[in-house]
Amino acid sequence: MANEWGPLEGLIGEWESDKGGLDTSFSHSEGKVLGTDYREKVTMKPFGPVDNGTQSLYGLDYKTAMWRHDEENPFHTEVGYWLWDAATGELLRGMVIPRGITVLAGGFADADAKEFTLKAAKGADLYTIGENQYLAKNASTLSYEVTVTIGDGTWSYKEDSILQMNEFPEPFHHTDGNILRRVN
């Protein structure tokens, strides 16, 4: 039987990747879509329970940072929580990205699941995306989806953020994916 963190148990710890990550996004400096490799560090610290009336959640407080090549400063950081509700099987990921975006993505999984998918959409009643005025006007995030796969001493993710960007007439798929290994 899984512990209180359900499928999140396999994510507890400190994680790193080499340059195995791939970020496919529009480069404003080069005026085109680029696939860029990156390295990443993630820390996930367990907490709980958090009682919400009759609901009881267990979670992971997380931070992540990503660097292209040998850059000193990360090109992407985020902080947030992964949450598990054992009574319903609901999984949540709440994150803040310092470009002016907040996301609450959700989905469902069994307690012993080694793979799960979470989704959010702009304007949805549940599992939604918030953004600042600049992004809403120039590069609005319409939807977000992440699939996490947990292995033995590793975990990986594939993300797809669909953006409505001024540079493209149709929605654009900004994708990221990486494989992380446990370092602590």
Summed up:
The chain is mainly beta.
Describe this structure in words.
With 184 residues, the chain is mainly beta. The chain has a single domain, classed as Calycin beta-barrel core domain (Lipocalin). 3% of the residues lie in helices and 65% in strands. The protein has one helix spanning 133-138, and strands at residues 13-16, 21-27, 32-52, 55-68, 76-85, 90-97, 101-108, 115-122, 128-131, 139-150, 154-165, 172-182. Strands 1, 2, 3, 4, 5, 6, 7, 8, 9, 10, 11 and 12 form a 12-stranded mixed beta sheet that branches. The protein is globular and about 50 Å long.
State the main characteristics.
184 residues; mainly beta; Lipocalin; twelve-stranded mixed β-sheet; 1 helix
Q: Termini separation (Å)?
A: 24 Å
- Outline: globular
Mean pLDDT: 96
CATH topology description: Lipocalin
> If helices are DSSP runs of H or I spanning 4 or more residues, what is the number of helices?
1
How much of the residues is beta strand, in percent?
over 45%
Helix content: under 10%
Taking all Cα atoms into account, the compactness measure Rg is 17 Å
In total, how many domains does the architecture comprise? 1
Topology pattern, helix = H, strand = E: EEEEEEEEEHEEE
Count of strand segments: 12
Largest sheet: 12 strands, mixed
CATH superfamily: Calycin beta-barrel core domain
CATH class, anyone?
Mainly Beta
Structural class: mainly beta
Please tell me the CATH architecture by its name. Answer: Beta Barrel
What order do the helices and strands come in, and which of them pair?
Layout lengths: L12 E4 L4 E7 L4 E21 L2 E14 L7 E10 L4 E8 L3 E8 L6 E8 L5 E4 L1 H6 E12 L3 E12 L6 E11 L2
